[in-house]
Amino acid sequence: MTMLDIRDLYKSFGGVRALAGLNLRIAGGEIVSIIGPNGAGKTSFFNLVTGLYPPDSGEILFEGETILGLESSEITEVGVARTFQNVRLFLNMTVLENVMVAQHCRTKAGAFRAILRTPFLRREEAEIRERAKEILSFFGSRLVGYRFDQPAFSLSYANRRRLEIARAMATRPKLLLLDEPVAGMNPRETAELTGLIRKLRDDRGLTVVVIEHDMRVVRDVSDRVVVLDHGVKIAEGSYDEVSSDDAVIEAYLGRPPEVGL
Length: 261
Prior knowledge:
Layout: E1 2-13, E2 16-27, E3 31-35, H1 42-49, E4 57-62, E5 65-66, H2 72-78, E6 80-82, H3 95-101, H4 111-116, H5 119-137, H6 157-169, E7 175-179, H7 187-202, E8 207-211, H8 215-221, E9 224-229, E10 232-237, H9 239-243, H10 246-253
Helix pairs in contact: 3-5, 3-6
């Protein structure tokens, strides 16, 4: 079943073309990597899917329904979550609070119950807290125990990236978009997060789309790889297929291919 269906998507910024007629289908349960040189349109694609910018033209369907015109919060509610290339956390909130507040889109207690501190609200808060702890446990010992009460600004860069993924998971997505999740990590941290990306699909049942420059990660996690260059899809297939594609090698190297990526 197609989860995300992109049809003839166009977007320009001040005359600079970000996407030019992109067509792409993501099936439920896939892990798909989006790769390409800097300026290829990868993050712009994420920004359009999540409602940060409207496309100039084209269609974006999620589970068969258009999500064009929806606010970013509404797109989150239908089941699409993302991380950012530059980590965006509530730095003065604790680790646990960051994941708890991300569940706001799934809560039912309104302002009236919050003011009165009704039993319903207290039960819901307790459920949110326990779910946040369970989500953080997905990352092993990295974000649990005493770290629950640590402010996010005190975390290492790698743990900040883990926390951002945890926060996205807390919205209960069906589709998770990860923008350069291993950027800035050392080889050991990269290998660990590579395994976690697979577990997001295998253990959590999520469909995952990854923007990544680390080709070892792309190789190890991807069911399918899509290559963009100047907003145009130039290749699509398995890692082995795209890594030996002449157009892909030329896009990365800027010259006719001599050897594979």
